[in-house]
Amino acid sequence: MIKSLINLPIAFAQSLFSRFQKILQWFTIKLKQPAHSATLSVRGLVYSSLVALAVFTAFFIAGPAELASRSNTALSGQIAGIAFAGMIFCLFVLPLALKGFYDEHEWTVGKQIIQNLLIVLLTGGAIIFFLNLSRPGAATLLAGVLLISVLPILILSFSLETFFSRKFETNAASIMNSISGQGVVSAENPLNVLVFKTGNEKLSLVPNQLIYVKTGENQSEFFYQNFFGVESTVLPVSEKLVNEELKSHPQFKKFHPEYFVNINGIKNVSGTARGYEIGIAKVNHVVKVSRKYKKGLEQL
């Protein structure tokens, strides 16, 4: 009996620890999930405007008591301008300076949360500095604002991940049905040979032999079907020359800055919160569709 009573709190502690581990594991997985980036986009401008409007309304209706002597409308407008500038800095300036971190194809929920916390930190700090509020306790005030914002940011980030996941998963299924019903896409003369040539190197292919091309600044890698399976060839051919050769063949579409894909070779289209991913038949490769080319895929 005594032993059971002693073991009871131990069992309870173990149960709590096990639940905590599961929550932590779920949270870690969530942070790595794809997310839809608003950086360097029209959506980013819309978000910036909405945040500025919300800040203006909040300060106009319920500004701090210390500001009662100032012109409410003008001051609220100035604070909204600071909020807008902070959003623009985080959504447009930083992504240009830190391209690796802000790569839309690698954007995750964790990065989204970091970005939102950074927006609160920079914008809140700028507003507090501008208003000269509680100078001795400015750091404490900013820390309090940041702490209060954590839960809403987590809820917003997880909710947007769920929303965009469902949206793109549904759209991806519709796109795949459309592609499956099209049959083989080709130019008027499907045997018109593609020729990629530079110096002494040359690659000639019947259009639908070519599965996809990965282009670079000074060279491109061609993946194509022949009698022995799939082969690849690297040539010192620029993206511009590849585009020039493929532009008269409607089956070749660009879904990423570095890829031209033969739509006849699309095996599947899947959706995540980040957007669309294209699985290419005959090769174990996935192309992440860039925001710029998303509409082109949806219109297939």
Overview of the molecule:
The chain is α+β, with helices and mostly antiparallel strands. Helix content is 52%, strand content 19%. The chain has helices at residues 2-31, 42-62, 72-97, 109-131, 138-180, 239-246, 294-298; strands spanning 194-198, 201-205, 210-215, 220-226, 229-235, 252-256, 259-262, 266-272, 275-280, 285-288. The strands form three sheets. The protein has a five-stranded antiparallel beta sheet with strand order 5-4-3-7-6. It has a three-stranded antiparallel beta sheet with strand order 8-9-10. The model has no long low-confidence stretch (mean pLDDT 86).
Number of helices: 7
Strand order of the largest sheet: 5-4-3-7-6
The biggest sheet amounts to: 5 strands, antiparallel
Total count of strands:
10
Number of domains: 2
User: Approximately how much beta-strand content do the residues carry?
Assistant: 15-25%
The shape, in one word, is extended
What distance separates the N and C termini?
72 Å
Order of helices and strands: HHHHHEEEEEHEEEEEH
Mean pLDDT across every amino acid position: 86
Rg, Cα atoms, Å: 27 Å
Specify the structural class. alpha+beta
Binned, the helix content reads 40-55%
Strand and helix layout:
Layout: H1 2-31, H2 42-62, H3 72-97, H4 109-131, H5 138-180, E1 194-198, E2 201-205, E3 210-215, E4 220-226, E5 229-235, H6 239-246, E6 252-256, E7 259-262, E8 266-272, E9 275-280, E10 285-288, H7 294-298
Helix pairs in contact: 2-3, 3-4, 4-5
